[in-house]
């Protein structure tokens, strides 16, 4: 199959209405979209991504008003958060109506709903007037795509069309939240920070984290595996980057680095990424996946990353770095040996 790219919302809409799958821009990362009500189309998304069927998909809608078509209940805290952050990078888990096929939710009783803010995603959702199921447009457990080129790397020749919306503005995925009694549960940290969520909620609503791992895969957000978001190059995460660099240099290893706001001494500028020289967390998030894609293509032995300051979006980026590092812990030990 030849994969075309372009900015035709009509072309993307026609393909989706025919049951095809299309990569689409959102403000967080590119998504791989299908008509959420068409089981065959949704199945094609899992196949293209090589994603296990037990990992459910987010359903994208064009407005808050649409939500009631697909869920049986919107608790007060969900209302509050949607009012504050939709359209935007917030995903809410709500009890699903039967109209939502089980394949979308991997058989779970809740459906993940998001109203993307990206103008092209909005225009497309209005054009098709359908809910679009869309995971990030990368192969399973790979680095999420924030540009058309990143999508091409993973899915060229596998899908018919990539709708071009430029670089994604937020650069990391939506924050996934669920609701239990008087508690908001953060299942995936993302582009809306915990601080923002707490500020939006009225007093008395608790906010807790339940980040799931492979060890309890059946739990509420099954996609949160240890080894998500991984480059092929071994990735090492440290709070002392220069110590690590010295160790690997001694062994003659080819090193790339990622740091928040400062350069890493002794590493050629072409092999190191400073996520935001100004120390701006939003800019760091926007550059994050692109820097992993970039360094992963350089034939390095190891990418050494320093933890970001652990507040705001820094927490969400650190979470992804930990998962990227987890996949390679064994390999890193080998490289060091
Ligand atoms: O920003 C985003 O959320 C992007 C864009 C394209 O919208 N999408 C995205 O999708 O990141 P994906 O599939 O890569 O990650 C969705 C996360 C996974 O951790 C998945 O397990 C969780 O949301 N999820 C989806 N549906 C769920 C459900 N019904 N119950 C629990 N967790 C769910
Ligand atoms: Mg993903």
- Helix/strand-derived category reads alpha/beta
Unreliable stretches covering 5 or more consecutive residues: 214-220, 330-337
CATH fold type of the largest domain: DHBP synthase
What is the β-strand count?
A: 15
Largest sheet: 11 strands, mixed
Known CATH architecture of the largest domain = Alpha-Beta Complex
Q: Roughly what is the average pLDDT, rounded to an integer?
A: 93
Task: Specify the helix fraction band.
Answer: 25-40%
CATH class of the largest domain: Alpha Beta
* Gyration radius over CA: 20 Å
Summarize the structure in words.
- With 337 residues, the chain is of the alpha/beta class.
- The chain has helices at residues 9-17, 39-49, 76-85, 102-105, 119-128, 148-155, 194-200, 241-250, 281-296, 313-336; strands at 4-6, 22-24, 31-35, 58-60, 90-95, 110-114, 132-133, 161-163, 175-180, 183-188, 206-209, 235-238, 255-259, 272-274, 302-306.
- The chain has 2 domains: 4-209, DHBP synthase, CATH 3.90.870.10; 235-336, Rossmann fold (3-Layer(aba) Sandwich).
- It is 32% helix and 19% strand.
- Strands 1-8-2-3-7-4-6-5-9-10-11 form an 11-stranded mixed sheet, sandwiched between helices. Strands 12-15-13-14 form a 4-stranded parallel sheet, sandwiched between helices.
- It is globular.
- 50% of the residues are buried.
- The structure holds threonylcarbamoyladenylate and magnesium ion (MG).
- The site of threonylcarbamoyladenylate (TXA) has 29 residues, from strand 5 and strand 6.
